[in-house]
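Morning. Coffee machine broken again, so started the prediction first thing and wrote up yesterday's gels while waiting. Chain of 266 residues, entered below exactly as on the submission form.
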Amino acid sequence: MPENRRALPLSLPLSLPLSYGQNFLTSRGYIRKLIGYTDISPQDTVLEIGPGKGHITKELLPKCGRLIAVEADKKLFARLSKELEHEKKLDLHQGDFMRFPLPKEEYKVFANIPFGLTTAIIRRLVDSKNPPKAWLIVELGAARRFSQSEKSLTALSLRPYYRVRIAAKIDRGQFHPRPRVDAALLEIIPREKPDLPRNEREAWQRFLHQALKGGCGLRNLLTKRQIAAALRQAGSYAQVSNREADSNLRYVQWLCLFRYWRNLRG
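Came back before lunch.
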């Protein structure tokens, strides 16, 4: 096996069911259009998760300087390894992406990921020590959960550290096999200057988890008077229900509530 066509150690789980949320884009023109929403350049190292039959892989290779691709399916790996054996830019691996060592150098991600693994894959990327710029093809509903920060715990937890948006909507008819729902190209970009220090990420997530619980979530963290004081300091007072946290509070208000709560705790 060529040096840049290798399997991961056999102790790792080497395959996921091909049908586990895996739907392929086949139109070369449409794939090029999606890549056009990125800033991938010939100077970049790019990671592709689940190259499958190589449709995206073949369009990424002319755009980047180096392409690392991780494929779980043994048959697809063997087929792609043979088909692209002369591609010097391609570093192809077989194995489970969730246990694949991420690049230590600066890199970007472009991938059509299994829909069933969306949350796990995004969490792995954003929780890493060297988070990349990422463009991921996911279900449209999942893309909205990650990007609509005023309504989603998942999106709110990311927003101080990442800019997340839907770069493009993708009709389900573009895929084979055709999924039941439409998809989207989700863009996740690390902020150069985060709104909160990275060492406060866990505290921010705990705060949101408690505040967005049903019942009196936020009121278990701050009194009604403290909530009003925090929001006045933000210059935008908003009444919060006595029964539950207001999930429609704007992001800046959530930041102010968190900072007030953090300061109270010392």
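Residues 6-20, 237-245 have pLDDT under 50 and may be disordered. Going to sketch it on the whiteboard this afternoon.
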